[in-house]
TrEMBL record:
Keywords: Disulfide bond, Periplasm, Redox-active center, Signal
Region forming the signal peptide: 1-19
Annotated ranges, domain Disulphide bond isomerase DsbC/G N-terminal: 16-82
Family stated for the protein in its record: Belongs to the thioredoxin family. DsbC subfamily.
Xref: Gene3D superfamilies: Disulphide bond isomerase, DsbC/G, N-terminal, Glutaredoxin
Compartments, record wording: Periplasm
PANTHER family linked to this entry: THIOL:DISULFIDE INTERCHANGE PROTEIN DSBC, THIOL:DISULFIDE INTERCHANGE PROTEIN DSBC-RELATED
Domain Thioredoxin-like fold: residue ranges: 106-228
Matching InterPro entries: DiS-bond_Isoase_DsbC/G, DiS-bond_isomerase_DsbC/G_N, DiS-bond_isomerase_DsbC/G_N_sf, Thiol:disulfide_interchange, Thioredoxin-like_fold, Thioredoxin-like_sf
GO cellular component, one term: periplasmic space
Function noted in UniProt: Required for disulfide bond formation in some periplasmic proteins. Acts by transferring its disulfide bond to other proteins and is reduced in the process.
Protein name as it appears in the record: Thiol:disulfide interchange protein
Coiled-coil portions: none
Length: 233
């Protein structure tokens, strides 16, 4: 009898939590225009973690307060709990986009990095000029698209042409060298990659994601990236 009562109470409590999370989701979407992808418990009591198309937020369970913050765990050596969550999101997303990335594979591969790129970005072009050095260092580079001006920009259209080219690797190199590339269209995930980047904290390019999901914003030479990979283990 007691077990049945406890089960009923647990179901009632779970239903109340789900209703509360749904209310927060509805409130954020209707008030701020955010697309809420998931709601989960936050590392801090009284807060929930909200994953949106514009990044990771925290909210009070009532939905009254919204925080854009970093949570650090003092009892765990100042572990950045927000970055832990984002790193997992990056790893999961990169895995999901593995078939739609443009890859420059190292012959003797030791590491794989993912780089959010924009073909019109000067520092992206500079990084790509070192693609041979990255590969020589055993680093495979996988590119995901991040047209900084958004999906309604000429750069977006050009990046679609790169992703849809018969030889995307050559098209990427040509585009970053300033050469004209042929217009092309196909089923592609350029927009989805761009939205994914926004979700996981990418605000500019190039943006390098290491295998553990940690992020290096901005250009770094091949030797510096190799050092970071070796340090990360």
């Amino acid at each position: 009898m007691k077990q049945a009562l406890f089960a009923v109470l647990a179901m009632v409590g779970q239903s109340a939590v789900l209703a509360q999370e749904l209310d927060v989701k509805t409130r954020l979407e209707s008030t701020l225009g955010l697309n809420v992808l998931s709601v989960a418990d936050a590392p801090v009591d009284g807060l929930i973690q909200v994953t949106t198309d514009r990044g990771l937020f925290y909210a009070s369970r009532s939905g009254q307060y919204l925080l854009q913050a970093r949570i650090f765990n003092l009892d765990a050596g100042m572990r950045n709990e927000t970055e832990v969550a984002l790193s997992q999101m990056r790893r999961d997303g990169i895995k999901a986009f593995s078939d739609s990335a443009i890859e420059f594979k190292a012959k003797d591969e030791k590491y794989v990095i993912t780089v959010f790129t924009d073909i019109s970005c000067g520092y992206c072009q500079r990084l790509h000029n070192e693609i041979g050095q990255f590969n020589a260092n055993g680093i495979t580079v996988k590119y995901l698209a991040f047209p900084r001006a958004g999906v309604d920009s000429p750069t977006y259209d050009e990046m679609v042409s790169v992703w849809c080219a018969k030889n995307p690797q050559k098209a990427m190199t040509d585009a970053k060298s300033g050469d004209q590339i042929a217009n092309a269209s196909c089923a592609n995930k350029v927009a989805e990659q761009y939205m994914f980047g926004q979700q996981v904290g990418v605000t500019g390019t190039p943006n390098i994601i290491l295998p553990d999901g940690s992020m290096i914003p901005g250009y770094q030479p091949a030797a510096a990236v190799l050092n970071a990979l070796e340090q990360a283990g």
